[in-house]
Design a protein that fits this description.
121 residues; mainly beta; 7-stranded mixed sheet; 4-stranded antiparallel sheet; 0% helix; 55% strand; elongated
Length: 121
């Protein structure tokens, strides 16, 4: 069973920075991609950034140039570096993994418990 544990959220002033971490544990065959999503109060969960097994990345237009997703395969950890934070970045941030448990299995998904990011003066 795959488990994802996020950390690094908190309160930061506008213009500040935070780095989120997501540590993955559990037995899998392969990872297709890992990503960060966020959900603000009253809004749907949205993709923030995603990185594939070939290190291809994509970002929401609202965070391009400010956020960077990266990963450390040796530590089974993915990071989200968030710079120039804005109040509209306030949300619960969730880590997601897309993976296979065997060579012939379909792609499955797992979510972390979420970490709160609040941008406010």
């Amino acid at each position: 069973q795959v488990q994802l544990v996020e950390s690094g959220g908190g309160l930061v002033q506008p213009g500040g920075s935070l780095r989120l971490s997501c540590a993955r544990s559990g037995s899998i065959f392969s990872i297709n991609a890992m990503g960060w999503y966020r959900q603000a109060p009253g809004k749907q969960r949205e993709l923030v950034a995603r990185i594939t097994s070939s290190s291809s990345t994509n970002y929401a237009d609202s965070v391009k140039g400010r956020f960077t997703i990266s990963r450390d395969n040796a530590k089974n950890t993915v990071y989200l570096q968030m710079n120039s934070l804005k109040p509209e970045d306030t949300a619960v941030y969730y880590c997601n993994a897309e993976f296979r448990v065997s060579p012939t299995s379909g792609v499955r998904g797992a979510w972390g418990q979420g970490t709160q990011v609040t941008v406010s003066s």
